[in-house]
Design goal:
alpha/beta, 10 helices, globular
Length: 273
């Protein structure tokens, strides 16, 4: 029987946490860890100029892995303006599917809000100029991010690890964005996130792990992996009282719609998610 194909729209497979067993982690995701589903494609976002090369290398070495390049808000403290030129050059040279991971973070202290805002806006301008969607880090910063998106229009993207209100979700959807659902949704106590996952239009949802971060309930305190996308998808199916196959088909379709270069890139690498 042919396996159900899923797309992990946010996974840091290049991270040091996977250095010791990256091959095994990748194989487990692609084989579905014995499940009736597998992870057919994995979007690997960069977080700073220093790891652009690592992201590109992982995506060359592991079929079905596709890159995005950007400067994460938690890394802007060591960023320099010339990194934006390097980002633009990389996006023009590499077959990237998005600009990311970019955004704002109003949780971590200390921080430089002005510097975060500068790099976020400049990267939105790059995305607009190159007609690329964006992968957004939105932790406790949804309203200022929406304000920036209204001022600098980009071709949509994904609000990664979305945990805002229904009204905020609807504002992202109006701007052409999908909402990323992952490990946080698997905790029974995550009432708001679970309610959103169960009631938002299914065409607005994509799946993600953010591995090795945001582990699901069954790995609380441990390392998240892309293979966990399968039980994460099963959780969404249970919340919506739908078959896993229907959730997989819808979220895969949504990922392709919001990341249109995904299909082109995976086709050239021999994958067909």
């Amino acid at each position: 029987m042919e396996k159900i194909a899923l797309i992990d729209t946010h996974c840091h497979l290049d991270a040091a946490e996977f250095d010791a067993d990256r091959d095994a982690v990748y194989r487990a995701a692609k084989l579905g860890a014995g499940e009736a589903a597998e992870v057919a494609a994995i979007v690997v976002p960069a977080v700073e100029r220093a790891n652009f090369g690592a992201v590109a290398s992982v995506c060359r070495d592991y079929p079905g892995c596709v890159p995005a390049y950007g400067i994460h808000p938690l890394y802007v403290e060591r960023a320099r303006p010339e990194d934006l030129d390097a980002l633009r050059t990389t996006l023009q040279r590499e077959p990237a599917v998005a600009v990311g991971e970019i955004g704002l973070d109003r949780h971590v202290e200390p921080r430089d809000d002005g510097k975060q805002l500068f790099y976020f806006n400049e990267q939105l301008k790059i995305a607009r100029a190159l007609d690329l969607p964006v992968l957004l880090h939105v932790r406790k910063a949804i309203d200022p991010i929406l304000k920036c998106l209204r001022e600098i229009r980009v071709p949509g993207g994904i609000a990664h690890a979305f945990n805002g209100s229904r009204q905020q979700a609807e504002e992202f959807i109006k701007l052409g964005f999908k909402l990323g659902c992952g490990g946080a949704m698997t905790f029974a106590g995550s009432k708001r996130i679970r309610t959103l996952a169960a009631t938002l239009p299914l065409e607005a949802i994509v799946l993600e792990t953010d591995a090795p971060d945001i582990p699901p309930a069954w790995r609380a305190g441990g390392r998240n992996t892309p293979a966990d996308l399968v039980p994460i998808a099963r959780t969404l199916a249970e919340l919506r009282s739908l078959p896993l196959a229907e959730i997989a088909a819808a979220t895969t379709r949504n990922a392709r719609a919001v990341l249109p270069r995904l299909r082109d890139f995976t086709t050239t690498t021999g994958e067909n998610p």
